[in-house]
């Protein structure tokens, strides 16, 4: 495996500290590795990927001391060079719990539970704003979505907007490890796009996976392998080229327990989420901003 480079760092406030993080030996094309089967709410299927999707190797191990030192954030952390990890405040956690969103069977049920308790939902929203405001770096932030994923999906990211209404879970094509930014930015401006905070409000732990390299680092590494002009490498296809030419570059996996959050520059690094091993619906709350912790 390739050694970790100094790149995107981790500011880790989790009680589990670095025990929450593991590392593997890189990525493979999806066709060489079968996805685990999904069986939930009467749906039984093996998730399928886009043709050019790259997935994670499964040889996870604990970080060694040198890797921890390489990942630790320093005083120059900001919204695009650092992944922040922590627990949400106890009061906020209690508010989520009193709405019992965890345990919902689907998106509609999550929304119904919120709508059924307007006062609790309003108080929750106010508490969320009070939590996020000090992290927002004096810049605007906005609610993005409540993310819903089936359990036991090894890599959850997919684009369902092009599927016909009434599509079935087995119709989904997952995209594999990816960077979010595909329009309104270039490889060189992906670090100006801000970041996201994602709070696990489901019942079980999930994982956030990422490669600790910025888009600029990734393109500079690619320049050593291919002519990036000739291959027309851009913000939308850089992942495919990177994983083709650097299959041994490790991926980091962060275990995110219920009511823990990550803040990550998802336009500026390759990443995905995972619900592998879980048996209940995955629910996350996501805001966009320029968060720092
Ligand atoms: Fe993403």
What distinguishing features does this structure have?
alpha+beta; five-stranded antiparallel β-sheet; 293 residues; binds fe (ii) ion; 6 helices; 17 strands; globular
Backbone shape: globular
Low-confidence stretches: none
Radius of gyration: 19 Å
**How many structural domains does the protein architecture include?**
1
User: Which structural class fits the helix and strand makeup?
Assistant: alpha+beta
Mean of pLDDT: 95
Report the major sheet: 6 strands, mixed
How many helical stretches?
Answer: 6
Order of adjacent strands in the largest pleated sheet: 1-9-15-12-17-10
Share of β-strand residues: 15-25%
| Bound molecule types | fe (ii) ion
* Helix and strand run: EEEEEEEEHEHHHEEEEHHEEEE
Care to describe what's here?
- The chain has 293 residues and is of the alpha+beta class.
- It has one domain (9-289).
- The protein contains 6 helices and 17 strands.
- The chain has helices at 65-71, 90-98, 107-116, 118-132, 215-223, 238-245; strands at residues 9-12, 21-23, 27-29, 38-40, 43-45, 48-49, 54-56, 61-62, 82-87, 142-149, 173-174, 195-200, 206-210, 252-256, 260-264, 271-274, 282-289.
- The strands form 5 sheets. Strands 1-9-15-12-17-10 form a 6-stranded mixed beta sheet, with no helix packed on it. The chain has a 5-stranded antiparallel beta sheet with strand order 8-2-14-13-16, with no helix packed on it. It has a two-stranded antiparallel sheet with strand order 3-7.
- It is globular and about 55 Å long.
- The model has no long low-confidence stretch (mean pLDDT 95).
- The site of fe (ii) ion has 5 residues, from loops.
